[in-house]
Design brief:
Number of helices: 11
Helix content: 25-40%
Radius of gyration: 23 Å
Structural class: alpha/beta
Length: 495
């Protein structure tokens, strides 16, 4: 009789809850690469130069005409930077971006007094050695792209691989390797990305053929990523270059289909988004909208090729004002959950430590809220993706993966994006609970189970521990992100 009453009570609780799950029965729907969660260090960070100026302190106006600020090369040997990056490994580190399209590599320890004609910046051997040393120290594989500016071309305007070959040769001589490469950064925006004037899909197809033949011969172990597009829409205009144009002209030839996605553009480039929409279902679903566009193009032109998102953040052009606060961590974790469930294999956040969208503060290298979210994902969500079903309540997002280390264990990620409504979920097993939240969504700190996350006095990561939580109905407070690790799930997909 007691068993029957308990079962009835559980059924009643499940009906009253917003979500219930049986972790042992969740089916595997796919897997992502072990380096799924990755990041960018922009080429201009490595060389030094003008990059997106961080916003002034609150209350001060931002001058859109003064969108850039000069910066010295990033110190990739910094112990704090390396320690924090290593905690997110294994990963890919993509050294690319708009500035890479016009960067000269001279294989000299220092930059020449005058940069060569047809290039806007210079990458030195010492700086690239720093990239290789960083990647080795933090267990990151290098992805990059190459210069396509007028200086990289012959008299007829054709792309020459001599610069790319030099970079590959030096990388090998320094004991490193380029694991993956895009021909250029964002060819759909070639007119403003350093390519020669008038660059079009036909020119891209001609150059990409040269690139493809060169890379197959010179560094066959390097994956060809492409096209690395940005800006396509469901109903493209007739102006500009579309990814469809590029693929139709260039034909098959990539190992991984890559694209870029930002929810919006920042005020630096004319954006005017309201932070009140940052937790809306419509805002978060922009990830799906963009993926659908590029997945359709992949299916037509590069069928069955794995998809990589090689550059992403909330807002292009350095990020929105709220991107360095807890508010953007909801988008960050939800995006990882959506894309893993959709089969995207790698997601590279832009950036690790530059401007307002960096996971780390660019001056101090101290973690921002998105870094702590990334750290919990890395530690708790393994490569095997499970089907948790659809949450029946608006504002509740549920994702499930096998735990990366514990055999049979399931991790459930429950994101409550409502600012004022609690949600309830029913878990039939005890769990360890890890809840991220803060009294100030647009603040720079985040709390784990009520305690503020920060580096310790010894400049190390704090202990990341969960709270033992009994089986049954669990309340999800408004505007929180919670991981539940159920060690006793005994899910057969997680062995």
């Amino acid at each position: 009789m007691l068993t029957g009453l308990a079962a009835a009570a559980a059924a009643t609780a499940a009906q009253a809850a917003d979500f219930s799950v049986t972790p042992a029965e969740l089916k595997a729907i796919g897997s992502v690469e072990p380096r799924f969660q990755s990041y960018n260090i922009e080429m201009v960070e490595v060389t030094g130069g003008r990059f997106w100026r961080p916003y002034p302190r609150a209350g001060r106006a931002f001058d859109q005409d003064d969108r850039y600020s000069p910066r010295a090369p990033i110190d990739l040997s910094n112990p704090r930077l390396r320690m924090l990056a290593a905690a997110l490994s294994p990963a890919y580190v993509r050294v690319s971006g708009t500035w890479a399209n016009a960067t000269f590599f001279g294989d000299a320890e220092t930059a020449p007094a005058k940069r060569p004609a047809g290039f806007n910046s210079v990458l030195t051997r010492a700086q690239w050695r720093g990239v290789i040393g960083f990647a080795r120290a933090v267990d990151a594989e290098i992805a990059t792209s190459f210069a396509v500016s007028p200086g990289s071309r012959d008299g007829a305007g054709n792309w020459k691989p001599d610069q790319a070959q030099r970079l590959i040769d030096v990388t090998r001589s320094l004991g490193g390797r380029v694991a993956a490469a895009e021909f250029m950064n964002e060819p759909t925006l070639a007119a403003t990305n350093g390519a020669p004037p008038g660059y079009d899909a036909a020119a891209y197809a001609r150059d990409f053929k040269i690139f493809r033949e060169w890379i197959r011969q010179s560094t066959p172990e390097t994956l060809i990523l492409g096209p690395g597009s940005a800006g396509d829409t469901a109903s493209p205009s007739t102006s500009g270059i579309t990814t469809r144009d590029l693929l139709a002209a260039s034909g098959l030839g990539v190992d991984r289909f890559s694209y870029h996605h930002y929810n919006t553009i920042s005020p630096r480039c004319g954006g005017h988004d309201d932070p009140t929409q940052a937790l809306s279902d419509q805002w978060l679903a922009r990830t799906d909208t963009t993926l659908a566009i590029y997945r359709d193009l992949r299916d037509r032109f590069e069928p069955a090729k794995p998809i990589w998102l090689t550059e992403t953040a909330d807002a292009a052009c350095g990020g929105n004002r709220w991107d360095k606060t807890l508010l953007d961590a909801f988008r960050y974790l939800d995006q990882l959950g959506r894309l893993a469930k959709a089969g995207v294999q790698v997601v590279m956040h832009n950036t690790l430590a530059a401007s307002d969208y960096g996971l780390l503060d660019e001056t101090t290298f101290r973690p921002r809220p998105n870094y702590w979210a990334a750290l919990l994902w890395r530690r708790l969500m393994g490569p095997t993706v499970l089907d948790a079903g659809a949450a029946p309540a608006s504002g509740l997002h549920i994702y499930a993966h096998c735990h990366p280390e514990r055999q049979g264990a399931v991790t459930l990620l429950a994101i409550n994006t409502s600012r004022d409504v609690s949600r309830r979920i029913v878990l039939p097993l005890s769990s360890e609970r890890f809840t991220l939240g803060s009294p100030r969504l647009q603040g720079g700190t985040v709390q784990l189970n009520g305690s503020t996350l920060a580096l310790t006095a010894g400049d190390r990561l704090p202990g990341i521990t969960g709270i033992a939580t009994a089986a049954g109905t669990i309340r999800l407070a408004p505007a929180t992100m919670t991981f539940f690790v159920m060690t006793g799930a005994a899910n057969p997909a997680c062995h």
